[in-house]
Amino acid sequence: MFSVPVLILISVLVGVLGSLTGLGGASILVPILVIFGIPMKEAVASTMATIIATSASSSVFNLRNKIANVRIALYLEIFTVTGAILGATITKIISPVYLYFFFAAFLLTSFMRVGIFRRILLEKMLSPSAGLDRFSRFLNLNGGYIDAVRNRLIEYRARNALLGGIGMFIAGLAAGMLGIGAGAFKVTVQENVLGLPPKVSSATSNLIIGMTALAATSVYLSCGFLNLMLMAPMVVGTAAGGIIGGRILNRVTDSFLRILFFTVVSVLIVQMLSKGIMSIWH
Amino acid sequence: MALTSCVKSESRLETVMSCIFALGVTLASLFVIVGIILSHRSGTGLDLLTERVDFIHKSNFFRLIWSLVRGANMPHGPLLFVTLGMICLVLTPLLAVAAAFVHFILTRNLKFAVITLVVMVILLTSLAIH
Question: What is the chain B residue with the closest CA to A216?
Answer without folding.
Answer: B126
